[in-house]
Amino acid sequence: xxxxxxxxxxxxxxxxxxxxxxxxxxxxxxxxxxxxxxxxxxxxxxxxxxxxxxxxxxxxxxxxxxxxxxxxxxxxxxxxxxxxxxxxxxxxxxxxxxxxxxxxxxxxxxxxxxxxx
Length: 117
Hints:
single chain; 4% helix; nine-stranded antiparallel beta sheet; 11 strands
């Protein structure tokens, strides 16, 4: 879940999640949450491929992608497939990490998924 939470094992440690982690099935498609323009595509250890989409003043960030089918500067529509979510071979988890930013301020992405914004 979004925000700060107690560590699941370490009693006095807290963890912070700047987004939400969405569990899904193997080979699941990652889709754009809203119309926008692909701002950046990157690759990082432990995050795999990352796609950032600009929606006016907002940015949506999709991490842990196995493959990406969009290009830098490409316009995207709501629910357009942008790539495939990575499956970890060690634990068989398929999980998309999703963040929303307003400028440099982290937003709760759950609001965008449930349509409360």
